[in-house]
Design a protein that fits this description.
Structural class: alpha+beta
Order of helices and strands: EEHEEH
Strand content: 15-25%
Helix content: 25-40%
Strand order of the largest sheet: 1-2-3-4
Largest sheet: 4 strands, mixed
Number of strands: 4
Radius of gyration: 13 Å
């Protein structure tokens, strides 16, 4: 952790040459999408990243590929097109 300058939990991820911020959560059975995507967007700004996404551990599911991914529609568009459709998060 780097406090106010946190840039996410998984580093070195790029798409179309741009950084992607990935925040990971083990929520113990609860989902907090608004809070977690807000945190990912703060970290996205800290890292000048294209998109901020959250990977949330599903309760009683060990397979990494079966975990939840949370993001805003603007983040999805950014991943698909390589540019953000918004200026306000």
């Amino acid at each position: 952790r780097t406090g106010a300058r946190d840039t996410g939990d998984i580093a070195g991820v790029r798409h179309m040459g741009r950084r992607i911020t990935i925040e990971t959560k083990d929520y113990g059975g609860r989902l907090l999408p608004a809070q977690w995507t807000s945190e990912a967007h703060t970290e996205m700004g800290n890292d000048d990243a294209l998109a901020g996404i959250v990977v949330a551990k599903r309760r009683a599911v060990a397979d990494p590929g079966s975990q939840w991914v949370l993001m805003t529609l603007n983040d999805l568009v950014a991943l698909l097109t390589g540019s953000r459709p918004d200026t306000d998060l």
